[in-house]
Amino acid sequence: MTHVTLRSEFEDLIDPYAPVGQTGTGFEFTEGPIWHPVDHYLLFSDMPADVRRRWDSRRGVTEVKRPSNKCNGMTYDAELNLIVCEHATSSLIRERPDGRREVLASHFDNQELNSPNDVCVHSSGAIYFSDPWYGRMPVFGVERPRQLGFQGVYRVPPGGGAAKLLVDRHLFEQPNGLCFSPDERVFYVNDTVQALIRAFDVEADGSLSNPRTFAGGIRSELEPGLPDGMKCDQRGNVWVTAPGGVWVYSPAGELLGKVRLPELVANLTWGGPEFRTLYLTATHSVYAIPTKVGPRHEPYMSGKRGDAGSTAAAPHLADGDMQLDPRRCAMILQDLQNDVIMDGGAFADSGAPAHAREQRVVDNVRRLAEIARSRGVVIIHVWFIVEAGAPGVTLNAPLFEGLVDSKAMVRGSWGAAPVSGLEPRAGDFVVEKMRMSAWEGTRLETILKATGRDMIINAGAWTNMSIEHTARTGADKGYFMIVPEDCCSTMNAEWHHASVNFAMRNVAVVTNADAVIKALG
Known about the structure:
By secondary structure, the protein is α+β, with helices and mostly antiparallel strands. It contains eight helices and 34 strands. The relative contact order is 0.11.
């Protein structure tokens, strides 16, 4: 079966001839797929049959829960507890590995919810879910009157509490699939009846604002299928069930292409050891398709159980045979801004542009970052940014005095902008600082903990200052620091070699871009 390329970017995400493999068949209506990141199996629901099933490569399909309360969407929280939308009970519940069951949400304004349908977890631990009324219809649920007069989208706060309505009561007819962008700044919700996807800005308190139509007209008179399940990939593209299979939209809302399947698709999730297999629940069957891209990193994907005393195994970092788990890695692109390493920048007279060219630092960082993204590594740009006049910068060191005197790194200026070719991509994070170390006074560690990353590929400028300070502090904090020396530069080769050959050897693995690429697999 040939998939449909509408824009060339689609073929960076999936081979147009990627095989569609049938994992299992003979079901009534499959939904809610979710991959266990540690034990490597797929859970999925069969609502009309009131069964939850499991698939793994060793045993195939097995039944794990009957009755299942006609469960629909499922995901895991950061501790790998299962979060389940139940149609029959109109509840969102948490199932712990020891069998304990906790109701997270069942009512709003003292009225029963309609029937929680799809669910996702924010890095803060907050849980977002949609609440159409399909679960009060025959076949897909238990037929019974509705108590609420609308279909909403809700948030359960971190640690639990009453569900909060996030949208206007009458904005959606049947809200269904939902997902976050990779940086969690945008939240997407589709509407099956209206055949569209809406986007919202995510505020600091977890609320939603600025509703707008992201994509519309997701219907066809020629093929069955409507918006239902939806996921965001690591580059910010939105994959949504639609006529003929799955339609893929860019972060700008452009339709890139269509993944074709032989049955109507209800939902999808990525799985497999490297999260490069797309599993699709499609009416009577479950299918699997290899992809070139993985999902946006969700809290459960770090694969850490709720055992406070457990720690992840140390990575293999031996010289010449380094092995890195991309799911544990973040790559920092630090201070790669025009003022720092470009001719015409505030510090051009320091020799920094010449050494950056000698090191081929821009080309090497670009190449490593592209490959790291494709493997699922989190990319974090760290920029030194000051406001005009540099308020808040203390003149306690020559470096900071020089910055103020040179009027460097001013927000909005050419000098503070990232070097051409190293601009942030969809799904990347940006961290701002006013000190040498990437850790000092920034949200870097918040991002690393939220995404479950403890191995840091530390690249950028300047080697003997920002890179070295960040490596030292990272080691003190318990992170594994990897410094590809050909992805770093400073004022001259002598200072660079002194840092990578002596100072950083006791706090980081000093290597090169090719070795890191090989280690990522």
